[in-house]
């Protein structure tokens, strides 16, 4: 079993096709019915699929779950006991069908069925960092799924399976190309290719979006400028939008990375991010499109604190964006680290819809090889309290309920490629799955999602369920522990971001270097973001800022993110900072070793192919967790000249040995 089927591992013997009835005809209803015929087990009773406008459904007086929600309920229809799958829209019916399949996979066909749900977030989007040459930036699961060469003519059946997998978890949008965009993706041939994908995705409720290169009017239109205030530029974008909508009538809109890491943008002309976003928004507005404008600005100036840039640039623009612009903010202020405090912008732009951006691909958490279940990372950010009002959490900012926004969204940088198991390893599928489920309902717990995923992926055997969910639930914290705990971040080696490099100090810009982030010296370690340092804490709401200004009231997991402390600083446990940090490395390695043993215990209970790949990857992870531990400890000891805490094993090699390791084949940033 190569894992191709993801969470859609349907039984061999399936329901009699005529047991599934559809009222009304459309590609979407047909897709829903086909999925049930494919996935419900033999012997399953009659099922009716119909929207709430159908007279038979109307007569049942079921509750409404809104434009995308569903109700699945037993009822008597035409005198027959029937399972009714319905919603206000066809999309609701589609999601209801997948919810039914999930329910059956997780609880068995005999369990009572009574489901209703609606998404809390409107845009549930995968961002593909796929380049037109097929390379996926930060992608570790093979090449791009999109075969730009054979599109639009050849429609690989895999595109349909991609759409099914997404519809199953409620994802309703896909940005096809990298945020580091090429203007070429907006040319007629590429629009036709995108349109072919849009046609395939449409019955599954998935809209297509494109990343737009801000300077495209110059590169494609021959204009002298891309200044958003220039009428000729605005005209060019309007015409471009019209052209796209002729090919893709339900095109979602644009995603833009501007003035960040060398990308062009409105700042090149002295205009603001709002000027740029609003100009593009006006172009798609007549067609109902939107603009997702990224707040990940990372400009060439020497910042006193990189973590402060996005806030400094965007906070003053609150309320200045058009109503079809949503500002896309990464979960944390640096860059998808194993742990980051939530991004201060979530508490600072009440008049602007903010969508959250997570990274599903594990750029900083061991690529596709390390096992790290990211739902706890996602949930940690979503559950964080912004301190702006009682009960104000990041989730309530993102779902719009706190500040009354209806344009709401969650984006995940996809971990998908053309490898047979889609994500480079069976367990990485869980991160795609968890992202979709949390975008639907940010209130779901990581544990509940882990159980669902495990049942659908490895079956309902209680021992398998117990073992796999326990592995998942500890895995992310293990990565934090063995890469650098207590709020340390950005400690990785250069370029590829795989493996340790806390000593790196020679790169051109200060904030490219790990030493910029940890600031370790003989006496202490950590980045002072209080008033005596960069004062980044002031970007949080006053009550929270006050808490974070004091190490005693800062969450331990974020301690060195906000404070520079003596190695001898005593934590709540009474242990010193140095001892705690050091022992966390051991804890991380021990957790991986334990996961490996537990997986070993499932030999024979999981199919051999997925079992073996996972076993091998866990062995790699254990080896590399030790490498992180040893290299990091060797470096910290060279700085603080302290002995290891009692009983801890010394690093296997000296520091120079770790510094000399090269990883020429680790996939890097092709930009
Ligand atoms: C960083 C990646 C880089 C991306 C950038 C972004 O290292 O490849 O282009 O984020 O989000 O995480 O734009």
UniProtKB/TrEMBL annotation:
Residues 110-422 form the Glycosyl hydrolase family 67 catalytic domain. Gene3D superfamilies: Alpha-glucuronidase, C-terminal domain (3.90.1330.10), Chitobiase/beta-hexosaminidase domain 2-like (3.30.379.10), Glycosidases (3.20.20.80). It comes from the Bacteria. Keywords: Carbohydrate metabolism, Glycosidase, Hydrolase, Polysaccharide degradation, Signal, Xylan degradation. It catalyses: Hydrolysis of (1->2)-alpha-D-(4-O-methyl)glucuronosyl links in the main chain of hardwood xylans. It is an enzyme of class 3 (hydrolase). GO terms for molecular function: alpha-glucuronidase activity; xylan alpha-1,2-glucuronosidase activity. Pfam families: Glyco_hydro_67C (PF07477), Glyco_hydro_67M (PF07488), Glyco_hydro_67N (PF03648). Residues 44-100 form the Alpha glucuronidase N-terminal domain. InterPro entries: A-glucoronidase_C_sf (IPR037054), GH (IPR017853), Glyco_hydro_67_aGlcAse (IPR011395), Glyco_hydro_67_aGlcAse_N (IPR005154), Glyco_hydro_67_C (IPR011099), Glyco_hydro_67_cat (IPR011100), Hex-like_dom2 (IPR029018). The active site is at 261 (proton donor), 335 (proton acceptor), 363 (proton acceptor). One of its GO terms (biological process) is xylan catabolic process. One of its GO terms (cellular component) is extracellular region. Its EC number is 3.2.1.131. Residues 423-648 form the Glycosyl hydrolase family 67 C-terminal domain. Homodimer. Belongs to the glycosyl hydrolase 67 family. This is Xylan alpha-1,2-glucuronidase. The lineage of its organism: Bacteria, Pseudomonadati, Pseudomonadota, Alphaproteobacteria, Sphingomonadales.
């Amino acid at each position: 079993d190569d894992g191709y089927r993801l969470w859609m591992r349907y039984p061999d013997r399936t329901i009699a096709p005529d047991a599934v009835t559809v009222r009304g005809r459309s590609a979407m209803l047909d897709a829903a019915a086909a999925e049930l015929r494919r996935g419900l087990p033999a012997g399953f009773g009659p099922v009716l699929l119909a929207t709430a406008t159908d007279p038979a459904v109307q007569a049942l007086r079921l509750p409404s779950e809104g434009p995308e929600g569903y109700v699945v309920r037993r009822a008597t229809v035409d005198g027959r006991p029937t399972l009714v799958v319905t919603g206000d829209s066809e999309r609701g019916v589609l999601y209801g069908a997948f919810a039914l399949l999930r329910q059956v996979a997780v609880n068995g066909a005999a369990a009572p069925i009574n489901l209703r749900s609606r998404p809390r977030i409107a845009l549930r989007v995968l961002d593909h960092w796929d380049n037109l040459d097929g390379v996926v930036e930060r992608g570790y699961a093979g090449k791009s799924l999109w075969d730009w060469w054979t599109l639009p003519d050849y429609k690989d059946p895999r595109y349909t399976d991609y759409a099914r997998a997404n519809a199953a978890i409620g994802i309703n949008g896909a940005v096809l190309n990298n945020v580091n965009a090429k203007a070429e993706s907006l040319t007629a041939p590429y629009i036709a290719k995108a349109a072919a994908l849009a046609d395939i995705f449409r019955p599954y409720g998935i809209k297509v979006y494109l990343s737009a290169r801000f300077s495209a009017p110059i590169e494609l239109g021959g204009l002298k400028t891309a200044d958003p205030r220039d009428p000729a530029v605005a005209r060019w974008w309007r015409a471009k939008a019209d052209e796209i909508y002729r090919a893709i009538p339900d095109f979602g809109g644009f995603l833009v990375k501007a003035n960040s890491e060398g990308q062009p943008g409105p700042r090149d002309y002295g205009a603001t991010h709002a000027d740029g976003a609003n100009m593009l928004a006006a172009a798609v507005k007549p067609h109902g499109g939107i603009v997702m404008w990224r707040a990940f600005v990372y400009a060439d100036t020497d910042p006193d604190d990189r973590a402060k840039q996005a806030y400094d640039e965007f906070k003053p623009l609150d309320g200045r964006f058009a109503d079809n612009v949503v500002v896309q903010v990464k979960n944390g202020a640096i860059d998808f680290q194993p742990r980051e405090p939530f991004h201060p912008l979530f508490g600072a732009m009440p008049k602007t819809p903010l969508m959250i951006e997570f990274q599903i691909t594990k750029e900083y958490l061991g690529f596709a090889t390390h096992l790290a279940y990211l739902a706890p990372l996602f949930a940690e950010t979503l559950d964080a309290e912004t301190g702006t009002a009682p009960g104000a959490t990041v989730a309530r900012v993102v779902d719009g309920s706190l500040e009354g926004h209806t344009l709401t969204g969650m984006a995940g940088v996809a971990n998908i490629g053309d490898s047979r198991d889609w994500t480079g390893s069976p367990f990485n599928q869980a991160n795609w799955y968890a992202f979709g489920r949390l975008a639907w309902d940010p209130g779901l717990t990581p544990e509940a999602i882990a159980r669902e995923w495990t049942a659908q992926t490895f079956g309902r055997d209680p021992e398998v369920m117990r073992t796999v969910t326990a592995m998942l639930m500890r895995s992310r914290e293990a990565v934090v522990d063995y890469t650098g705990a207590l709020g340390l971040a950005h400690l990785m080696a250069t370029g590829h971001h795989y493996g340790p490099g806390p000593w790196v100090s020679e790169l051109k810009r200060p904030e490219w270097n790990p030493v910029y982030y940890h600031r370790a010296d003989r006496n202490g370690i950590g980045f002072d973001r209080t008033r005596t340092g960069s004062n980044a804490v002031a970007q949080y709401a006053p009550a929270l800022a006050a808490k974070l200004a004091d190490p005693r009231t800062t969450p331990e997991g974020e301690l060195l993110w906000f404070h520079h402390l003596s190695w001898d600083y005593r934590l709540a446990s009474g242990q010193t900072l140095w001892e705690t940090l050091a022992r966390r490395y051991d804890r991380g390695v021990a957790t991986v070793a334990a996961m490996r043993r537990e997986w070993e215990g499932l030999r024979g209970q999981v199919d051999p192919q997925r079992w073996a790949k996972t076993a091998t990857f866990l062995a790699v992870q254990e080896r590399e967790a030790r490498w992180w531990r040893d290299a990091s400890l060797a470096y910290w000891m060279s700085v603080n000249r302290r002995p290891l805490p009692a009983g801890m094993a010394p690093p296997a090699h000296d520091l120079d040995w770790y510094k000399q390791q090269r990883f020429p084949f680790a996939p890097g940033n092709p930009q």
